[in-house]
Every structure is written in C-alpha cells, then in structure tokens.
Amino acid sequence: MDLPLSPRIRATDAPPIPAARAWAARYAGAAGPLLDLTQAVPGYPPHPDLLLRLAAAAGDRASAGYGPIDGEPALREALAADIARTYAAPVTAADVAITAGGNLAFTMAMAVLAGEGEAVLLPTPWYFNHRMALSLLGIAAIPLPCRAEDGFLPDPGRAAALLREAPRVRAVVLVTPNNPTGAAYPPEVIARFAALCRDHRAWLVLDETYRDFLPEPAGPPHGLFAEAGWREEGGVVQLYSFSKAYCVPGHRVGAILAGPAFRGALMKALDTMQICAPRAAQAALAWAVEGLRGWRAGNRALMAERAAAFRRAVAALPGWRPDALGAYFAYLRLPEGAPDALEAAERLAVEGGLLALPGPFFGPGQERHLRLAFANAGLEAIAAVPARLLRALPGSAASDPVA
C-alpha cells in the first residue's frame, strides 16, 4: 500500500552526492584507485590537540546534558573575537548563535526570514542543499544567473531587476567563497548587494563557510560588519561552519551572526530544530578558534597550493577550462565535443575512476560544467586528473589551447 508523503518532500531533489557515487560501483579499476572529488571535505586530519580535547569533552559528564539554546558562551565569545579580528569590526558574543552545522544554520535562517508563498533570490549555480532546504520549507528559489564570462560573480544590476519583478522576495543569499564555483566575491560587490537589499527591504544572507580559505587577506573580506547599522536596518545575516577550517564535519557545528531582532526570532527555530548544538565539539572548538589560528593559516596555504596545482594540471589539457577556481572547488567547463555534464560525469566515474559532480546538480543552465572538489586530494591525486579526463572522454579535447 502506497501511503502519502509530504508534497514538499516529493518536490525536493534527491541527495546528489550519493547519486554520483553510485556510478562508481561500475568502475572496474583500470585507471587506478578511485579519485573521489565529489564532497567538500578537508584532505587532512584534525589537529591532534583538537582530537584530544574532543575526546576529553565527549567523556565529560557535563557534555551529555542539554546546553544553552544559542550555544556555549565560550565558543560564542571565541568566534565573535575571531570575526571581529577578521573583519576589523566590533562584533560580540551577543551577535552569535551556535548551530548544529552549517546546513541547519541556513535552514533555520530561511525559516526565520520567509514563509509559504514567499521567495529567496539564489544565485546560480547554487549550492544544492540550499535549494533543497527552500523546497522543504515551501519557499520559492528565484534563480539569479551568474555568467562564466563574469567569473561567476553575481551582478547587482540583474538582481535589482529580479527584485523589482518579484516583490515577495524576502532575502538574497550570497555564498562567498562560492560553492560550487570557488569564486570569491570582492568587497565592492558585497557592498552593492547590501545597498540593494536595503533599498528593497530584503535581508542579505552571507554564507561564508569557506572564508578561512581566502588567499592571505590584504583586508577584511567585506566591510559590512564595520557599518553601524548592520544589525538592524542593514539586515545582514552571516552563516559560518566549523567543519572545513577545523576538519570536524562529523561533529556538526556551525554559527549564525545577526542582530538582536533576528536573533530573538531565531531562538524559536533553534529550540525547535536542535535544542542545542553538540556540546563536546563546542567545548573543544572554543579552545581551537584561538589555539589553532596558526594551524588554520597553514591550511590556507596548503589549499592555495592545491588550487595552483589543479590549475596547472588542467592548463595542459587543450579545450578544458576552469571558468572559476578557488577555496575548495574548480568549476570546469567541458570542451567542445564532450557530452553534456550528466553523461560526462557518469563516464568519468565508470571509465576513468574520477568522481565529479555534474553542473545540473547546481541548478539550471549548468549543462557544460563539472564541479571538482580538489580540497580533499593531495598533489599526486591532482596530477592524475588530466589522464582520467582524457581516458573517459578521449574525443573531447579541442584543438585550441587553454587560454
């Protein structure tokens, strides 16, 4: 007997990464060990001192009980100090709430900002879990197409036109550095979006999960938190995840930075959806934010090295082009003669032993792109990527060299 399920669940896409990994079951191993570049996970272990503190906190009786709804004060204070340093702005623990991971941070933020029949402006290509969360909440995702020729940076002018046409938009979401493209948005682009949102009485939601992997900064990633009114009339919300910078995705700890009006409403979502974030991880991370600052800087340099290696590897392939590359990801354009992204990704998995995510997983208009998460691959694995691409798609190399 087929019993009914939620229409919102039925309308939500299936998880993309398991779908892509299912192709690997047909790989016979001819090209060597499977290279899995589907998921954004750090390609190195957590710091050993962090592991020791995690183990100690997990064995502490206090960690087994409920904690504060909006997070442990020590972690909120540590993260606020880190944000204040990074953005040269007066951020305090009162601005911070801790969540059970970055995805839940996004879902709860959207539940606070919009409801049934309302909409959120989401640049494409988009992070698929963002789109899935909006579907589950009954909130429309209005695509803001970003172009390869613009480096996949969102255009405030196009966004303004969409906001004029769709007055029910309650928020604009920017992900920087971006997932899936890796593109980092310049401060001036973020500032223009903030002004646009103020003009249209919409919230600006900045997902800065990967901000720890920006190149060595010459200045703050943006200046919004230094503006006096960002908490209220500025309407700015920042999302963050500890998963990448501290290599603890399994411990599910994220954060939301926002002003008091938003934070007051957020408490309802926090109490309903999580009650409290994992306490042992919060205890260990409260030390790690400052204690591992130098280690994080070293990992930033490591990721920059992998990004440069990936760019060099692909540059040797005629016709292949990374239209955007940075932080954790390369967004690779398929050459002329190659099949569309879905078929190409399947062939890469089955024939080349290389797992990548096809562009259509990231929204409309992405049929000629693949996302490769090089962050979880060492230099030897990155060097093997060109041979895998040519093995699975031998007739696709164009005659024109990569620019």
TrEMBL record:
Residues 49-377 form the Aminotransferase class I/classII large domain. Gene3D superfamilies: Type I PLP-dependent aspartate aminotransferase-like (Major domain). It comes from Caldovatus aquaticus. Its EC number is 2.6.1.1. This is aspartate transaminase. Belongs to the class-I pyridoxal-phosphate-dependent aminotransferase family. Its cofactor is pyridoxal 5'-phosphate. One of its GO terms (molecular function) is transaminase activity. InterPro entries: Aminotransferase_I/II_large, AspAT/PAT-like, PyrdxlP-dep_Trfase, PyrdxlP-dep_Trfase_major. Keywords: Aminotransferase, Pyridoxal phosphate, Transferase. It is an enzyme of class 2 (transferase). It catalyses: L-aspartate + 2-oxoglutarate = oxaloacetate + L-glutamate.
